[in-house]
Amino acid sequence: MKINLLFGAAMFFIANSALADDCPVGDYNQPYTMANGTYIDDPSKLDLDMDGEFGAGTTEITKCLENRHNMKVVVAINGAHPTNKNGVTQTNKARFLSNIEYMRENYEDVHGMSMAPGGDVKVIAVASNSGALLMTTYHPAWMRDSGDGGTDCPMKPLAGKTCSNPFRHLVERAQEIGVKFYLCQMASRVLGIKKGNKIPGVKFVPGGHIAVADFQEEGYNIIDL
Question: Taking the complete model, does pTM exceed 0.85, yes or no?
């Protein structure tokens, strides 16, 4: 019996080592958009392996994720927009949300780890500071021309203007793939965000930063944005 147990343990170690060493385990290159907005989907570029894209010997010095279970990640969204390589705010993108598909592809397509509810990776996001605006359905901060001459801003009605959140669909897409969102009430108080203009499914926390620390105590690994 003892020999069988030792043999079984050895096989488990070998199997998991193989998963860890298989770098990557799935599709490596997916179509992507470069920082300058160029969309890359040319198979001659996407079909390159690591050595072909980055240079000979790249595979040997690349550390890939292990195929883990019960992985827990908390993302701190501390601003509404990311900045580019020159430090310029990209108001056409939403911090974290504009890259949610890349996270999914990396976990699921590349490393074989599911982000779906009950899967291998549990991802939550806590929005605070100006990042709280991303959790709204509408807010005056999103004020812009409506395009159709209508009025769509319950908090501050203006003819021909809308203040609907242009990134709401990204939050809802993230929810679909299993991400749970929390909204800082301190930021909500300052910004005038109420339950009535919060995206359905987004929960509250009294304080965003200490909530992130609390999630860390629960075993979540932080990605601070």
Answer: no
